[in-house]
Amino acid sequence: MLKRWLKDIHWPLFFAMGGLVVVGSAFIYSAAYHDSGSYETKQLFWVMVALVIFFAMAFLGYRSLLGMSYLLYVLAIICLVVVLVLGEARLGAQRWLRLGPIAFQPSEFAKLATILALANFLGSNNRWEKEGRIFLAAAAIALVPFILIVKQPDLGTSLMFIPMMIAMLFIWGLRYRYFIFTALTGLVAAPLMWGVLKEYQRKRILVFLDPDRDPLGSGYTAIQSKIAVGSGGLFGKGYMAGTQSQLQFVPEHHTDFIFCVIGEEWGFAGALLLLVLYGLLFRAAFQVVEHTTDMKAKLLVAGIAAVVFSQVFINIGMSIGLMPITGITLPLVSYGGSSLVMTAIALGLVLSIYKERSIF
Known about the structure:
The chain is mainly α. The protein has one domain. It is 71% helix and 4% strand. The chain is built from 16 helices and 3 strands. It has a 3-stranded antiparallel β-sheet. β2 (93-99) and β3 (102-104) form a beta hairpin. α2 (11-31) runs antiparallel to α3 (39-60), α2 (11-31) runs antiparallel to α14 and α15 runs antiparallel to α16. The longest helix has 34 residues, at 258-291. The protein is globular. It starts with a helix and ends in a 5-residue tail after the last helix.
């Protein structure tokens, strides 16, 4: 039985996930060493919870969650509505719901619930039958949580629904003309979105284009983050020896800007190690997509991989000045229970698909 259990584990996926969690925990400790929030202790608790949930999801199987996908989706929408009314505000955004001592972000749950709903819906329909209607229905499924999350406001998280939907529709086999039409529609509507954005969101975009326009205000974090990463050089200043992070020059350095701590203390070598671990994670996901014969499973893994990749790309990009600051955390590395647990659930579902392999 133990031999069978060990055989069912996709070891590259497990080691990549474990390596990222270990690196993240180490640098959360470093980043929060002079803080009084006991972030490293809280993160250790969530790491243990995430590990249990990861294997529980693998044992439970993805089919059981797909069977409840529409119910989970409706529950996620209800939570997003409730957070707009009763949510706890932090840093100017109303994103948190509190259940006793535990606060969580419904938007993290909504991402996974939407992936499950889209995988179930698209996988249950043939693209050769009413393709246009199915495309519009799938877009509507993603649009509802997108709008509710924008209202919080949390533009960064809401943007994750776009690559999620694109990846899943691509795997499903949607014809290219629909992608081209959607892209052109987005380009036409982009100027109109400027008026919808909050003032601080417009400032972030302007600062991204010209960081020196407000170096002590909205451009401060972007400048300090680039200084931290650049000062790390090839091998960094040493663990817990970074000046920008240890002296609190970079805000939110244990969450959104954990990458700049890694870059400063471990340098280019540490950043490369992190990218290699993410590469192993994505390679494992691509292998599962390639070899499973269940379309719903393919769609599920594609959506999960797209969201995780987008978060990694945007987070690292904003830390080195290549993307606007959006408040996106680095999956499995940044501090935060909601993100870690939901990522563990998602990767546990990927492992459950691997377990049911027939031609691996």
